[in-house]
Amino acid sequence: MKIFIYSNEEQEKEIRQKSYPDTMTLFFSRNSPTLEETENHDAFFLLHDDNEIMDLTGFKNKPVVIHSVTKNLANDSLPTNVARINAWPGFLQRTVWEIAHNENEVIPAIFKKLQWDIIKVKDEPGLISGRVISMIINEAFFALKEGVSTKKEIDLAMKLGTNYPYGPFEWAEKIGIDKVYDLLNTLSQSDIRCTPSFNKDGKINIS
């Protein structure tokens, strides 16, 4: 079985750390699949930034997994063969991937063949871990604003106290502060507690 993976260098590096059966062939590309590649592959991981727009109707019910953190499947009326994951830096190396999908058996079937563990979650912005980490980052900016400590000390405290692989400011830098801001801003439309404590450039909000 042939899997087409449209990814950047960091995403490819993380996925290559995962094992998979010899019967599965993973083809990595920095470009979206051509019509010929769409015909010649059995499943697709489209991990470009979720702000990009791509026509997802031409894959003939083959499994398509997209990187979409803030946008929901339902809101975009995507085909039932499309699922979404969070492919932020650091998330693809997790042993279990969170995935939102419609009740379409082709999606879990491809992961079963890859022998990769997944957990189905609600089709909502951030999935689960993205929401949690973004809120932790937000609280860290509140603490910084209040003069609790420095960025370096807050990062160190969180890593030592919770055994996190990164501190909140390290996570923000790794993911991209603009992406964290976009998710929090989306979440804040239904929950005021998620209102970003910083702007898109990572500057603390004064008000």
Quickly list its features.
alpha/beta; single chain; 207 residues; 7 strands
Secondary structure class reads alpha/beta
Helices and strands, in order, run as: EHEHEEHEEHEHHHH
List the uncertain runs: none
Number of helices: 8
Q: Report the major sheet.
A: 7 strands, mixed
How much strand? 15-25%
Total count of strands: 7
Shape: elongated
Distance between the termini: 54 Å
Helix content: 25-40%
Rg, nearest Å: 18 Å
Placed side by side, the strands forming the largest sheet appear as: 2-1-3-4-5-6-7
Averaging pLDDT over every residue, what do you get? Answer: 93
Describe this structure in words.
The chain has helices at 9-16, 35-40, 73-76, 106-114, 129-145, 151-162, 168-175, 177-188, and strands at 2-6, 25-29, 43-46, 64-67, 82-85, 96-101, 117-120. The protein has a seven-stranded mixed sheet with strand order 2-1-3-4-5-6-7. With 207 residues, it is of the alpha/beta class.
